Predict the structure.
Amino acid sequence: MSAEALQTALAKLRDAGVRMTPQRHAILSYLLKTMSHPTVDEIYKSLEEKFPNMSVATIYNNLRVFKDVGLVRELTYGDASSRYDANMNEHYHAVCTNCGAVKDFYYPSLAQVEKEAAKATGFEVSSHRLEVYGLCEDCRIKQ
Amino acid sequence: MSAEALQTALAKLRDAGVRMTPQRHAILSYLLKTMSHPTVDEIYKSLEEKFPNMSVATIYNNLRVFKDVGLVRELTYGDASSRYDANMNEHYHAVCTNCGAVKDFYYPSLAQVEKEAAKATGFEVSSHRLEVYGLCEDCRIKQ
DNA sequence: CTACTTGCAAACTTTTTGCTTGCGA
DNA sequence: TCGCAAGCAAAAAGTTTGCAAGTAG
């Protein structure tokens, strides 16, 4: 499944006229492979063995490219750095308030919320974000 | 209502053993008065007439105090600075993707989501956050 | 009185930018 | 070849910290 997802993603980039490079390929495939919604720093550390000279700017640049093409979503949390999620199916996140881990979960779509919110606020609503916060299994055990 | 809310808040701070200062009072009452979920910079600009020497550090310090005592909530969004919300009733936010404005809306509690998420992820869930994104009325007209 | 607050500036973190060199198509 | 991409370092932007001086209780 991951292999197919990579092919689809590569096709999407090609169609958008985005040039492929080893670094770009590595970042993308790492994102698709992991389920951990890594930060820029985690990506950087994971790939520095293969690309000792790669700079963080390259990672940021590529993440923006992926975001523009619609291959990844940026998750932002107050204190910490952004995390990047290459799972583009509609889903939600459970965020650990202790260690920052992010885990996906699925739930029936909340389209009705968007409608209600639009009515209540006068906004033209186009998307929504739902997250639950708490302790992940690891942190629960350790505490 | 705002006046009572201020009294309640002051009492809460007193009970927590927090000393009152003119700056602290001004920041708190500004937060309770406004509905606009201001950023630190907005608070700073609003109060610089009354407190020409007040530094942003003072605002950050006080916001942390208020947060610790449970008087305000910090809202964080990727690109921009944090916003601070002194409405502690359970409610949700509509965020303008163009100008960053944040408007409250109410919706039946999503307690069920927390349960489902806990079951699906193994997290011990303690809270959730729901936001809708789109264009606010002003930005809709201008575009 | 004295511990908590303020004000100020410097430090820190994360992300962006400018510019030169390199490389994919 | 030609322009996009990478690497690097410096700059932004937001937030935090350390310390001296002031003040609430």
Notes: Residues 19-21, 40-41, 56-57, 60-61, 80-82 of chain A lie near DNA strand C (CB under 10 Å from a C1'). The beta strands of chain A are 73-75, 83-85, 92-96, 102-105, 124-135.
